[in-house]
Amino acid sequence: MTDAHTQRENRGLWLGLLGVVIFALTLPMTRLATGTVDAPQLSPWFVTFARAALAGGLSALYLLAVRAPWPKAAQRGSLWLSLAGNVVGYPLLLGWALRYVTASHAAVITALLPLATAAAAAWLMHQRARWGFWVFAGLGSALVAVYSVLRAIQMGHGVGLSWADTLLLGAVVAASLGYVAGAKVTASLGAEKVISWVCVMALPITLPGAWLTWPEHAIAPTAWLALLYVGVFSMWAGFFAWFRGLSLGGPLRVSQTQLLQPFISILAAVPLLGESLDAMTLGFALLVVLTVFMGRRMASTPATPTTTVSRSTT
To answer: Whole-angstrom Cα distance, residue 204 to residue 29?
Structure first.
C-alpha cells in the first residue's frame, strides 16, 4: 500500500468521523430547538419545515453550481419516498419525542437505525441477509424495549413503552425507509445530489409550512441557533463530509465510525443541555451498539455498502 493511498484512506476516515460528529449533534440540537414540555421553544412542526427549507435553499445553489440535470421520471418515486421519510417523518417524530425525553435517552433508541436500515434494504431491495443478522436485529430491538420499560418504571410511568419511545421508533422506521429509497438512486444520481434533490423537491411543502408554523411567541436565541445548525449541518453539509469520507476511505472502513454516534450524542448533551451521564443509558447504548456491530458483520455483502452509504441522512 502506497503512502498516497494510506493518506487518502486516513483523510476519508477523518471526513467520515466529521460527518458522524455532525449527525450526532442532531439529537441535542433538536431538543435545544424544540425545548421541553415545561419550557417549549420552537414547534416541532416549524423545526421540521424550517430546517428542510434552509437545506433546500443551499441545495438549490449547489445543484445550479454543478449544473445537475433534472432527475428522471424513474428516479422521482424513490426521491419522494426519501423526502417523506427523511425530510418530514424522521425530524417531525424526533422533534416531538425530544420534548418528552432527553437527548441521551433518544440516542439509545435511535442507535437501532443501522439495523433498521439494513432490514429495510432486505425488504425493499430484495437483498438477502443471513439468519445471524436477524438474530442480532431482534436482540437489539429487545434491548431497546427493555431499556424503555426500565426507564418508564424509573420515571414512575408504569410498565410499557412510553409515547415518546413510540415516536422515536416511528422516526427510526421513517428514516430507514427514506435511506433505502435514496440508496436506490444514489448510483445513478450521486450521493450529494440525492440529498440535494430531495431537499429541493420538498421546498413547495417546507417553505409554506415554515411560514404557516412561524412561532408567535418569543424564542430564545439558543433555539434559533440550534435550528440553524440542524438546517445547515444536519440536513445538508454533514452529507458532503460523510459521502466524501466514504468515497476516499472506503464504505466498510469508514462506516464503522457510525458506532460512535450514540455516545457522541450522549456526551454532547451534557454541555449543550445540562444532561447528566447516566450509567444505565451508557450501558444500554453500549449493548445496542454491540448488536449493531455484530448485525452488520452478519449482513450479506451486497446489503452492506448500499445501506451504509445512505445511513446518516439525518
So the answer is: 25
- Please check whether residue 245 is in contact with residue 255, taking contact to mean a CB–CB distance below 8 angstroms: no
Which secondary structure element, helix H or strand E, spans residue 181, and what is its range? helix 163-189
Cell 424544540 belongs to residue: 34
For residue 40, list its beta bridge partners: 35
Cα–Cα–Cα angle for 176, 178, 183, nearest 5°?
A: 95
What are the residues facing 35 on neighbouring strands? 40
Of the candidates 10, 54, 21, the residue with the CA atom closest to the CA atom of residue 312 = 21
Distance CA 137, CA 304 (A): 14
Q: pTM (2 decimals)?
A: 0.86
d(CA 284, CA 95): 22
CB 22 within 8 A of CB 234: yes
Distant-in-sequence, close-in-space partners of 145: CB < 8 Å, separation ≥ 6: 161
- The residue type at 8: R
Q: Whole-angstrom distance between the N-terminal and C-terminal Cα of the chain?
A: 34
The greatest distance separating any two alpha carbons of the chain, rounded to the nearest whole angstrom, comes to: 60
Who contacts 266 (Cβ-Cβ below 8 Å, separation ≥6)?
103, 104, 107, 275, 277, 281, 282, 285
pLDDT in tens, the chain (314 residues): 567 777 887 888 888 889 899 999 999 999 999 999 999 999 999 999 999 999 999 999 999 999 999 999 999 999 999 999 999 999 999 999 999 999 999 999 998 888 888 788 777 766 666 788 778 878 888 888 888 888 777 765 554 557 889 999 999 999 989 888 888 888 888 878 999 999 999 999 999 999 999 999 999 999 999 999 999 999 999 888 887 777 677 665 676 788 888 999 999 999 999 998 888 988 988 998 888 888 777 765 444 444 444 455 46
